Amino acid sequence: MTLFKQNDGSPSNLLAFFNTLTNFILFNMLWLGGSLLIVTIPAVTAALFASVAPWARGQSADAPLVTFWTAVRRYWRKATVLGVIDLLLGGLIGLNLFFIWQNGFDSSIALPAFIITSLFGLFLIVANVYLWPLLVTLDPPLRSWLKNGLRLSVAHLFWGIWVAMMAMTPLAVSVFLPRVTFLILTFAAAALLTYWGAWRVMKRYLDAEDFQALGLELKAGEI
């Protein structure tokens, strides 16, 4: 993951460093601003992933405003579909866990039901770890995107859990830091860590044309 390249103190490198830093902060603030309408959260989430993706792939992220809003227009439909799926399934999982907790664990089926529901919730989180980065990397057709995202979630379940834990770290740490951290850092950092982790898996399945479309060189052993 190449976010801040090694700085030798030269003016050009210092300028590049601060340019990257300001872009990172800008992406975080754009996501927060775009999320104020609630219904736009999926679209700006996809845009945030698309904006930080080049860093996770070892590239440069240029023209932040153009990149972000172009991604909003490009991905909003599929992102909204995923957002609705997450809302429905997440709501059902939360409701089921609430009822189980309210009724207690005296029943013989309460504990198994709680465990199964919790595992399903965990799998939903892992699926999102792969689905968002996959969307902004290849922009596949809707059915293919969902199917391949679920396949990756099953095939690389434990790595997905680890990536989800890494992505939650900025959120957890920010709770104990000044509130301005949420404004300038937290969400972009979580998206960057998520994409970086998912990219480690996704690139194994890309062919030479995919690498070329992303502006990357295919190294020996990567396919």
Q: Any overview of this molecule?
A:
The protein has 223 residues and is an all-alpha fold. It contains 9 helices and no strands.
Summarize the structure.
This protein has helices at residues 11-34, 41-56, 64-103, 110-138, 142-155, 157-174, 180-184, 186-202, 208-213.
Q: What share of residues is helical? A: over 70%
Q: What is the count of helical runs?
A: 9
Low-confidence stretches: none
What structural class should be given to the helix and strand makeup?
Answer: mainly alpha
Number of strands: 0
Span between termini: 19 Å
**Strand portion:** under 5%
Task: Give the overall form.
Answer: globular
Q: From the alpha-carbon coordinates, what is the Rg to the nearest angstrom? A: 19 Å
Q: Mean of the pLDDT scores?
A: 90
Largest sheet: none
Order of helices and strands: HHHHHHHHH
Describe the protein's topology:
Layout: H1 11-34, H2 41-56, H3 64-103, H4 110-138, H5 142-155, H6 157-174, H7 180-184, H8 186-202, H9 208-213
Keywords, separated by commas or semicolons:
single chain, 223 residues, mainly alpha, 9 helices
